[in-house]
Amino acid sequence: LKEMNARHVWHPMAHPGDMRAHPPTIITEARGVRITDIDGHEVVDGVGGLWCVNLGFSCEPVKQAIAAQLDRLPYYSAFRGTTNDVVIELSTVLADFFAPDGLSRAFFTSGGSDSVETALRLARQYHKIRGEAGRVKFLSLKKGYHGTHFAAASVNGNPLFRNAYEPLLPGCFHIPAPYTYRNPFNEEDPERLAQLCLAALEAEIEFQGANTIAAMIVEPVLGAGGVIVPHESFMPGVREITARHGILLIADEVITGFGRTGDWTGSRHWGVQPDMATTAKAITNAYFPFGAVMLSEAVAEVFERDETGAALIGHGYTYSCHPVGAAAALASIAEMQRLEVHRNAAARGRQLYEGFQRLKERHEIIGDVRGGHGMMTAMELVSDRASKTPIAPEVIARVHEATYRAGAMVRMSGANLICSPPLIMTEDEAQVILDALDKGLAAA
Ligand code: PMP
């Protein structure tokens, strides 16, 4: 398998030529919060698959719902004229789930990038229907991650995900993120930094002209960019500014939705109601590729009352409204609610965050620790704390490997090691991750 992998498989987010030098670990089994590789090595999964397996890998109700749905109706198109019963049921469950966020309509997709693509397209269309066709630009944050389709890549903050594919969508502008450890203002105070970032947002809107901007997309807690938790004034500030300028606010809840931040959604965590929210990942706990864009009543009504006949026609995926995805989502949401996974996410997230801070006292290599809001925790590694010199990628890879050998899978993302385990994790299992990291950091 390792040989065939090197010869035939191109992996996402990897250099195809690297497969021989750095062969990926082949995972063959997963149970509860533990994964096993092809060599029989079992570890605690500190990644939740990829920030998505909130209920762990042995969730019977989700498995059974998928099996039953495959038996009854594995698929039928929802394009023009047909749909299925499961997705209708799901849309009502989602309307209840997102009611506190002010979101009541759903457009279904097959994953996060599809959801982001959909939300950006809907934002442009919304303004067009309202007679403001000049609102075409998008704003996002410099450390934000929103996916890999051309539109999503265009709003991604990290040039690594953009440069190789340029020219991208024109009219996308990136605002400094509230990242206290490194920022163009050299401001370490979270509240003052939030105000500086909001001022930069205002300045960009003024420079571009508010009537040229369709939407701003923001992760309520930035995930892949290294778990950046903004000050509590930031998201309300973004909401106030975007609303004042008629710019739609899209909350990218692909990671933060469904309990991960310790509340049911990231937006709710900050007391903000977006105009749209993108979801995917934990909506089905990754048991089936699926996603949904949620829309507010006010935004939805613009489409629903459209008399030009143009609304939405021209956008949809073969697998939009997939009945198996919908069945997986229904079972996942019911199980997450039954277990109130957001509560454990808050408690275990705090345990991991405090554990990371203790590791920082023991390991000089840790420059910064971020998290404390649910099961999203990161440590940024440096070769020198005083100068914050970024560490060599080989060292991060060594820590990662040594941590894996010591019993836990964590995620490498740039200079960060990230921990985003299943939300059902026990205190002891979270401690296994902390102990393994301690050994991994020491060994490397
Ligand atoms: N938005 C966010 C916030 C994400 O973290 C991701 C993926 N990690 C995406 C969008 C893209 O989702 P997908 O990989 O399912 O296309």
UniProtKB/TrEMBL annotation:
Cofactor(s) essential for the protein: pyridoxal 5'-phosphate
Keywords on record: Aminotransferase, Pyridoxal phosphate, Transferase
SUPFAM superfamilies referenced in this protein's UniProt entry, alphabetically: PLP-dependent transferases (SSF53383)
Record GO cellular component, one term: cytosol
InterPro entries in UniProt: Aminotrans_3, Aminotrans_3_PPA_site, PyrdxlP-dep_Trfase, PyrdxlP-dep_Trfase_major, PyrdxlP-dep_Trfase_small
CDD domains: OAT_like
Pfam families: Aminotran_3
Gene Ontology MF terms in the entry: pyridoxal phosphate binding; transaminase activity
Highest taxon of the lineage: Bacteria
Record's keyword annotation contains Hydrolase: no
Family: Belongs to the class-III pyridoxal-phosphate-dependent aminotransferase family.
Protein name: Adenosylmethionine-8-amino-7-oxononanoate aminotransferase
Organism: Meinhardsimonia xiamenensis
